[in-house]
Amino acid sequence: MIDFDQARAALFQSEKSRYVLEEPMSRHTTFRIGGPARVFVSPGDERDLAAILLFCADKGIPYAFLGNGSNLLVSDRGFEGIIISMGNWNGLHIEGKRMRAGAGVLLPRLSRKALDASLTGLEFACGIPGTIGGALVMNAGAYGREMKDVVRRVKVMTRDGSVKTLEAEALRLGYRTSVIPKEGYVVLEAELELAFGDPQAIRAEMEELSARRREKQPLEYPSAGSTFKRPPGYFAGKLIDDAGLRGLRVGDAQVSEKHCGFVVNRGNATAADVLSLCAQVRERVREAFGVELELEVRRLGDFGAQEEQVRT
């Protein structure tokens, strides 16, 4: 691995840019799981971000982007590369019915700001613990709404450090998918198109959705949200429950007793525990119903032979 102390002067021009060596990823994921990243970088501006991407390409160093770590399982061995945090992209502006938000803006903050401006369309996002950048990568959604319903255009950086703007149609947003990871883009900023609404009605819907989330989801334990994608014609949580797997544990990783679609960390779960549990769940559901569950949670790092157990 390159000596980052020597490389720093060439890479970072912004005073906001920071890096840390051997940073535990358990500090940066909602699962509270993950070994150390060899280098953890928070670039301060587009110039420094482009410099990091070109540096990685030139040296053959693997890298990955991080939002809020809410849909991520990092290997116990960590990540032998560079984690690029987009936390500095946190600007938020409202002009009429349009919002422009940096990739690092959290969805709950975004939905609250929309409420303050009497804008409707983001109520579904009030309880999603991710950033807008991550939400666009996977077209995050809840309660029948998705990011594709509100996004208008997105500013991205390509692998070679150039910046371009993509209209919503070019993102190819589908169920938990987009063109963004396939093309190696990193989201810098998104422009959303909302509608004016009654602030009392908007607030009431947000409160209702938040109450439903508290009632039905295991928010008392760390998790990565819904663990499995919804199979066509089924609900993953119901299949898991009907297979008799509610409460199944491997170490401190457990199929939530509150909502079987979630795998939770009861305290000291490892990434190996989580993947072992997910492999058992997939096998039991396949045997019982002939349905193949696909992991929704993104994996990062070296999982060894375990990765083959959950690969789809």
Q: What features would you highlight for this structure?
A:
about 300 residues, 9 helices, 19 strands, about 25% strand, peptidoglycan synthesis
Question: How does this model look, in words?
Answer:
By secondary structure, this protein is of the alpha+beta class. The chain contains 9 helices and 19 strands. It has helices spanning 4-11, 46-59, 107-116, 132-137, 180-183, 199-216, 236-242, 271-289, 306-310, and strands at residues 18-24, 36-42, 63-66, 72-74, 79-85, 92-95, 98-102, 119-120, 141-142, 145-146, 151-157, 163-167, 186-193, 195-196, 223-226, 249-250, 253-255, 262-265, 298-300. The strands form 6 sheets. Strands 6-7-13-11-12 form a 5-stranded antiparallel beta sheet. It has a 4-stranded mixed beta sheet with strand order 1-2-5-3, covered by helices on one side. Strand 9 and strand 10 (145-146) form a beta hairpin. The longest helix has 19 residues, at 271-289. The protein is globular. 42% of the residues are buried.
Report the structural category: alpha+beta
Question: Cα-atom Rg, whole angstroms?
Answer: 20 Å
Quantity of strands, as a count:
19
Number of helices: 9
Helical proportion, percent range: 25-40%
Proportion of residues in extended strands:
25-35%
Order of helices and strands, N to C?
HEEHEEEEEHEHEEEEHEEHEHEEEHEH
Rounded average pLDDT? 94
Q: Could you give the distance between the termini? A: 31 Å
Low-confidence stretches: none
The assembly state of the depicted protein chains is single chain
Shape: globular
Biggest sheet, strands in spatial order? 6-7-13-11-12
Major beta-sheet overview: 5 strands, antiparallel
